[in-house]
Amino acid sequence: MDAVEPPLPEIRVGDKERREVDSLLQAAHGDGVLTLTEYDERAAKCWAARTRSELDVLIRDLPNATGVLAAQQPAAVAKPARPVVPMRQRLGAGVLGLAVIAGVVFAGTRVVGAADGLTIFGDRPVVVAPGDDRVEVGTLFGETTVIIPPDTYARTEGVTIFGSTHCDLACTPAAGQREVVVDAKGMFGSFDVMRQGEPRPQDNDRDRDRDRDDDD
Description:
Helix content: 25-40%
Number of helices: 5
Number of domains: 2
Distance between the termini: 99 Å
Number of strands: 9
């Protein structure tokens, strides 16, 4: 025995369809097809209608309403198929995302816990005292300048996420110099390591700009 398919749901209408039907009713009244009483009654039902069939019955007997409201179901719009992502690829992306988040959280905790200097949204110098052989600094959205004694050279360690550590002359050892470990941890920031008396990079930039202005 064949299964009976359920009837299709009624197509609902909005103000656009109601205005179209009301315009037809007004035209019919103007042409003398409907009396004023008939127009008032049908107009009230028009603006209370919720489905196409309720509107159709109001204009079915009017000569100028043929084909205005077609009682057809709108064509179904097929939803685009979602791309099938292999399970291995989805797991890999999820593990990578979790690893990045865990790394940022871990690094942020280490940055905030820097013992000798923390820079947040700014530029801060940290001077290593004579005799110290280690300094721990952190930067969040800032720049930290580490200045080591003139008789030392620096060895940098730590991690910087979305940032950089610059150590040119200060990280070049010379005879008789002792080592100072610069433990630099940062996120979205930078570190400049230099010896006392060494010009800072921005000072060099200003000197070049001043020389250029003098030449002009």
